[in-house]
Design a protein that fits this description.
By secondary structure, the chain is mainly alpha-helical. It contains 69 helices and 13 strands. The strands form 6 sheets. It has a 3-stranded antiparallel β-sheet. A hairpin with a 2-residue loop joins β8 and β9. The longest helix is centred in the middle third of the chain and has 33 residues.
Length: 1408
């Protein structure tokens, strides 16, 4: 019969009461007790039965037994007893505390799930939770045990625990919190909430907080609020992590934080940057995690967060941008997303470069996430950051935009997106980085690699790439096309030079010589320019040259082949690099070289796809016009015409399309690539001929060019037949503009053919067009200009004739060009038969414009043959009554100057148009002139620094300031020059306004530079020019010489006023060259004195009045603020008055000391026209002012020994020694004239100086003059330098030699051009030297005329004559030949029509 469990329990209680029981006995008894107790149900009546066992188990030796198993079994028995006797177990508080400590001790091992006792521990935990023992613990004051229990639970909980076990822990902890929440208990919970390393503990804390959210809300809010407002209490660990706590709490129980989050506004506005930064991070994460729902509940915090994008701290702004990106990505829709984008957009123009960079990166990331709906305006603003002032920003922006563009291309190829202008702007803007000179990564060498490798995804097909090329090319403007052509041309040069290198390499195998080595090295130097680091590239080429693997060279040669497809080229490149290995020292270089030398940007496949797209007329649902596609073809084929091979059928189909614009473009393509395609001229000639006769003017131009490209020689009978048909068609009276265009083009491509019909053509143009009287009421309907059809035909006739003088091939100059110049000058002047046939004033205006443009067009090649009077007419057209003439001339000259097609002297027109009465003309002129001066001055400084001949006179003619020479000459010949008895400063101010403007502009050119030497050089340079003109006569007409001297004197004194504190350097004016067609040396001292006497009324006060009047005059025609070069005139005048007042007082004192000074004033007299003087390069402004001043001056001179030349002329070289003249001396003492007792040394003897007039001493800086009336010749010597040959002393040959730049040699000669020497045929240059010449430097030479008798040499030199015609720098300093007297007019018309043979001279052709 079984023993009841109550009886068993009682017996066990007795046994346990026995002392000194062994462990085994205890374990056995406790297990029996556990088993018996588990069989008993809950009943308070069992209290007596369990009393003995309770007392036995409550013994301290059992509660604190050393053995873990014994303690575990004791805890199990207590848990069963508490269960049975619940709800009031019969234990004292003290025993309860021991029991709970024992039980909690067993929980410590719950982490050991593999333990054999894990089940008993779990049972204890579940029983403890079910019996709500934790409440008893709180009742008896066991708070420390509760904290320990919480710590144990968080430390032992594991992800692998059974759900029931975790639930038991959670229920126990929940009961405790529901009963009582203390700060230590809350700290334990929050600490484990932030314990990311123990995921189970954190989850347990999250579950606990979720279960007790209502109970925990108040203490948590109090804790977090204190953290927010109590910034000083940083010692508490939790107060350092309260942002993280808020974030965690918002994830699990956001309702707890309703009262806390609004307080974050306080942190977003606090002055401490670190706190604001942390607050931005927190709010940003809260927004992103809530998918912007946070912004709806806490809108005030959201608004303040957006304001942090404009925070004063860059760190805060960057953090706000990062989180704004995450917020938008979490929910890219709704008003909150739009607000984020608006705030982000403002940071694209942030003043901090790091913020701008981060903003662009954020925009690109957001655009990638939603390409279809992302605002296009923000994309365009991000693209504009490619123009950022910071190079680092531009680099990062380019990388990110390329990444965005590749994603866009991939989506387009997948059909998800269609082509979009906004994204196509990305390559457009990247291409413009070629003009960025601050960063080498943006040079064309690198941008080429970007377009070859980084622009498109590697997997994108050629067809898809072509679609994108067509798309963004339609957005191109002239700078884009220029940059693209630059990249393609650079690529083409590398490919061509690489082929040359391969040929040299093969040749070297047979002939390895030093010369061959140098040729190969030169080839390396040329190819290295296609790389960013040219020096390193040369080294890599040399290493590559040493490579013995011929297969690499074979593969490179294959890559250069234009017939290789893109896929084949890619495979070849990969194969070569794989074969080489990435460890090879030239691997990176060959990787770049293989990309550059292959057709990686455009190939024949691209050309074929473009042509097929044009023919099909399929725009792929885009708006890109057909014309844009053909324009892209033209750009490609202009560099790579061979890529059209195989596309002849497509090209012929283009001609069958009836679009006029496409026909013009197609003809242009044929003209470009005609020599490289297999198209028979017979197959297309009827079409080309029809366009030459009946097409548009543009079509006819390209049709003639296409015919020229398809035939083998210019004398082909096809041109003869075509010209005959065109001439015959002239008499039918139809398509006259087209026919004239065709004839002009034929004259350029086949001059010999044109000569056969020249008489008929000229007769028609002159008699039927130029001299015909037609009703001018017939207004041209195809042009917006208000001119008659007759007028337009006259202009077309002029253009046709002008083209006949500009053949593309080497030809002989036609003598009739003189007569043509007369016709053009008559048109500008409005005289002659042609002008009598014009009834409308509007027509006359347009013909004046056409005539001036024709002269400019001819000046691109025949500038040497344009006489001064014609040049004057062109420049003075800037004062034409018609604004149409002035504006057209301004833009035409600007265009030609920027192309460097005409000499720089034509920039004179800017001096006149910059003071125009019309604002648009004036503003454009100032802008153009500033651009011109800046570009030319930069080029001049580079050449001057690179040249050893910095003070050479020929080099100084390349200075942009040299145009002032021509401005003075043009003004001197102006019919509106003030009369002799006019001394009105207002009249002179208005008349001299172009001259004063240009002086101010030149002085202002360098005033912004930190280097004062540049400003000093400019002032000194102008000083030398003005002094030189004072020594010269007018070569065109001597009666204008006084006017030249008046203007130069005004310039000298104006220069003094405008350069108050400028130190002058004589490096700029040692040698001044004046063009001998405009100036000549003054030989008659009395004549010179009389000329200068005319200008006696021009003194310092008069010039100051002119400047004041000029200032007022400028204000009348424009705002002073519109013209920077005028802004300092008033200040200069005020300062000058103050200086003059002080100097005047000193002067009066000196006059009292030297009452007879004025009567005895003299500096040095000259019996020869050739004088020179040298003065200190450190001369101050006061010294120069003293020299220029007409008041009595005083100086001590060292007179050098006279040199008697072979012509008995005397050269005296007065010198102001540097050691004797100091700035202080000059500042306090003006120069006084030397007395009559002063003597000069002449040939070793002492001679008294003769007295000179006041006019003679006003400019003591005399210049050395070599006149051009046959005494001086500048010859092209065998060593390609200049040699001055003269019968009188001249400068040392070594000082006069000029080494012209290669391709721009200055080769001038004196020749009669096959006939008796004409008074207008002198080609020498007027040399004016204001430097000192020692006796050793003055070399008498004899003239050698043997060259004139040598026809072969003469012809050779004549061919060299025009080598400088296209050099703007020489155009200002060389002689311009006047071939026709000014009185030649109407009779020249018959000379042209007669077609009589004239003497002609061969010239070098103009470079295309």
């Amino acid at each position: 019969m079984a023993v009841p469990p109550e009886r068993v329990v009682q017996e066990i209680g007795k046994s346990l009461a026995r002392p000194r029981l062994s462990k085994d006995a205890l374990v056995k008894l406790l297990k029996e007790a556990e088993d018996a107790l588990s069989k008993l149900n809950q009943s308070s009546t069992l209290q007596n039965s369990l009393g003995l066992l309770n007392r036995s188990l409550s013994q301290i030796n059992l509660l604190q037994h050393k053995d873990k198993e014994v303690r575990l079994l004791v805890a199990v028995c207590f848990s069963e007893i508490i269960r049975i006797l619940a709800p009031e177990p019969p234990f004292s508080d003290e025993i309860f505390m021991h029991i709970f400590r024992l039980i909690i001790g067993t929980f410590i091992d719950l982490a050991d799930t593999a333990s054999p006792y894990f089940t008993r521990r779990t049972k204890i935990l579940e029983s403890f939770a079910a019996l709500r023992c934790c409440v008893i613990m709180l009742d008896i004051g066991c708070e420390d045990l509760v904290l320990e229990m919480f710590k144990v639970f968080f430390s032992v909980v594991r992800q692998s625990h059974q759900r029931s076990l975790i639930q038991a822990m959670l229920s126990i902890m929940t009961l405790v919190i529901e009963e009582k929440v203390t700060q230590p208990l809350l700290d334990i919970v929050l600490q484990n909430l932030m314990n990311a390393d123990k995921g189970a503990a954190s989850k347990l804390a999250v579950s606990l907080i979720q279960n007790c959210a209502g109970k925990l809300e108040s203490p948590i809010c109090g804790f977090l609020t204190s953290c927010i407002f109590d910034n000083d209490a940083s010692a508490n660990e939790f107060k350092k992590l309260y942002h993280e706590i808020i974030l965690k709490l918002y994830q699990c129980a956001p309702q707890i934080l309703v009262a806390v989050i609004p307080n974050l506004t306080q942190e977003l506005l606090i002055d401490q940057v670190d706190i604001r930064l942390r607050a931005v991070h927190l709010v940003g994460k809260l927004l992103a995690q809530s998918e912007l729902n946070f912004s709806q509940k806490f809108h005030t915090v959201f608004v303040e967060f957006l304001k942090r994008l404009s925070d004063k701290s860059p760190e805060v702004r960057i953090a706000a941008i990062e989180h704004a990106r995450e917020c938008y990505l979490s929910h890219p829709f709704g008003s909150e997303a739009r607000d984020i984008l608006a705030a982000l957009e403002g940071r694209l123009l942030d003043f901090d470069d790091k913020v701008r960079t981060e903003a662009v990166l954020a925009v690109c990331d957001l655009a990638k996430s939603s390409l279809t709906c992302f605002p296009s305006e923000i994309i365009l603003q991000a693209v504009e950051r490619l123009r950022d002032k910071k190079v680092s920003v531009r680099k990062k922006v380019m990388e990110k935009l390329l990444e965005l563009y590749r994603v866009y291309c991939s989506r387009c190829s997948e059909g998800v997106l269609t082509l979009s202008d906004h994204y196509e702007q990305i390559p457009c803007k990247i291409l413009l980085l070629c003009f960025d000179k601050e960063c080498k990564e943006f040079r064309p060498q690198y941008i080429e690699l970007v377009f070859a490798e980084d622009l498109f995804p590697a997997s994108l097909s050629i067809k898809e790439r072509t679609k994108h090329w067509i798309a963004f090319f339609s957005l191109f403007k002239l700078p884009h096309i220029k940059a693209l052509k630059s990249i393609l041309y650079q690529k083409w040069r590398l490919q061509m030079e690489l082929k040359v290198y391969f040929a040299l390499r093969d040749e070297e195998k047979e002939n390895a010589s030093e010369e061959m080595h140098m040729r190969i090295l030169a080839s390396f130097m040329k190819m290295s320019t296609a790389f960013l680091d040219s020096t390193k590239a040369v080294e890599c080429f040399q290493k590559l040259h040493q490579t013995t693997d011929n297969n690499i060279f074979k593969l490179l040669l294959e890559l250069v082949d234009e017939d290789m497809s893109s896929s084949a080229a890619y495979s070849t490149r990969v194969s070569m690099l794989k074969q080489l290995g990435d460890k090879h020292p030239t691997y990176d270089f060959l990787s770049t070289l293989s990309t550059k030398c292959s057709y990686s940007i455009f190939s024949a496949e691209h050309v074929r796809y473009i042509m097929e797209d044009v023919i099909s007329g399929n725009d792929d649902q885009t708006k890109y016009a057909q014309v844009s596609k053909v324009d892209l073809l033209i750009v490609i084929l202009s560099i790579y015409p061979t890529l059209l091979r195989g596309g002849e059928d497509c090209l012929l189909k283009l001609f069958s399309m009836n679009a006029t614009m496409l026909n013009e473009k197609s003809l242009q393509i044929l003209a470009i690539a005609g020599r490289h395609v297999s198209i028979a001229l017979s197959d297309i000639y009827p079409f080309l001929e029809q366009k030459c006769i009946e097409g548009t003017r543009t079509e006819s131009k390209y049709a003639v060019s296409a015919i020229s490209s398809l035939i083998h020689a210019s004398d082909d009978p096809i041109f003869s037949n075509l010209c005959k048909k065109v001439v015959n068609s002239l008499h039918h009276g139809r398509h006259i503009p087209t026919l004239l265009q065709s004839l002009g083009c034929i004259s350029q491509y086949s001059p010999l053919t044109y000569e056969l019909y020249k008489k008929q053509i000229m007769h028609f143009i002159i008699q039927k067009l130029l001299c015909s009287k037609v009703d001018s009421d017939q207004v041209s309907s195809n042009d917006g200009a208000l001119c008659s059809l007759s007028c337009k035909l006259k202009m077309y006739g002029l253009k046709s004739v002008a083209k006949s003088f500009l053949p593309h091939e080497v030809s002989q100059i036609q003598h009739e060009i003189k007569e043509f110049f007369v016709i053009l000058s008559d048109m500008i002047l409005g005289i002659g038969t042609i002008n009598e046939s014009i009834l409308s004033q509007s027509d006359k205006v347009h013909l004046r414009v056409a005539a001036a443009k024709c002269i400019l067009r001819l000046a691109t090649r025949w500038d040497l043959h344009i006489p001064p009077d014609i040049f004057h007419l062109v420049i003075m057209s800037a004062r034409d009554p018609s604004s149409t003439v002035r504006k057209s001339l301004l833009y035409k000259i600007h265009k030609l100057l920027m192309e460097q097609a005409i000499p720089d002297r034509y920039a004179c027109v800017f001096a006149f148009t910059s003071v125009d009465c019309i604002g648009d003309i004036r503003n454009d002129s100032v802008k153009f002139f500033t651009t011109f001066l800046t570009a030319r001055n930069k080029k001049f400084l580079i050449n001057r620094n690179a040249s050893a001949l910095e003070t050479d006179g020929v080099a100084n003619t390349k200075h942009p300031g040299y145009i002032v020479v021509f401005v003075i000459h043009v003004l001197a010949h102006d019919k509106n020059f003030p009369s002799d008895n006019c001394q009105d400063q207002d009249v002179y101010a208005e008349f001299c306004s172009p001259l004063i403007f240009i002086i101010c502009a030149l002085l202002n050119l360098n005033c912004g530079r930190s280097n004062q030497n540049d400003a000093s050089y400019m002032a000194s340079y102008l000083l030398g020019i003005f002094l030189a003109i004072q020594k010269a006569d007018d070569a065109v007409d001597a009666k204008f010489t006084p006017k030249l001297h008046i203007l130069s004197k005004i310039c000298l004194l104006a220069l003094k006023v405008l350069t108050q504190h400028c130190k002058f350097s004589l490096d700029a004016c040692h040698l001044v060259l004046l063009p001998s067609s405009y100036f000549k040396a003054c030989h008659d001292a009395r004549k010179k004195g009389a000329s200068l006497h005319v200008a006696n009324f021009v003194d310092k006060s008069f010039v100051r009045s002119i400047l004041c009047a000029f200032d007022s005059y400028i204000n009348q025609v424009q705002d002073v603020g519109d013209l920077d070069v005028m802004k300092n005139i008033s200040n200069a005048l005020t300062m000058d008055r103050q200086i003059d007042q002080s100097l005047g007082k000193m002067k009066k004192e000196k006059d009292n000391l030297h009452p007879n000074t004025k009567r005895s004033q003299k500096v040095c007299s000259m019996r020869s026209h050739m004088n020179s003087v040298s003065y200190s390069s450190s001369m101050s402004a006061e010294l120069v002012h003293g020299i220029i001043n007409l008041e009595p001056v005083n100086a001590e001179y060292e007179v050098r020994k006279e040199q008697v030349s072979s012509s008995d002329s005397v050269s005296i070289c007065p010198v102001i020694p540097t050691s004797q003249v100091s700035t202080k001396t000059v500042a306090s003492k003006e120069f006084m004239p030397s007395t009559s007792n002063e003597r000069c040394v002449t040939n070793g003897s002492i001679t008294s100086q003769p007295e000179t007039s006041k006019a003679d001493i006003e400019c003591p800086l005399d210049s050395q003059v070599a006149n051009d009336n046959g005494d001086v010749e500048l010859l092209d010597s065998e060593d390609k330098t200049w040699e001055a040959i003269n019968e009188m002393p001249l400068l040392d040959k070594g000082r006069c030699n000029v080494q012209p730049e290669e391709g721009k040699r200055l080769q001038l000669m004196l020749s009669d051009f096959g006939s008796a020497k004409s008074p207008h045929a002198d080609t020498s240059i007027l040399w004016l030297d204001s430097s000192s010449c020692s006796p050793e430097e003055v070399i008498p030479t004899t003239r050698d005329d043997s060259d004139k008798t040598n026809s072969a040499t003469s012809d050779e030199r004549t061919e060299n004559l025009c080598a400088s015609t296209n050099l703007s720098s020489v155009g200002a300093g060389k002689v311009n030949k006047r071939l026709l007297p000014t009185n030649a007019s109407k009779r020249s018309l018959s000379n042209i029509m007669d077609g009589r043979p004239r003497k002609s001279w061969r010239i070098q052709p103009r470079r295309k």
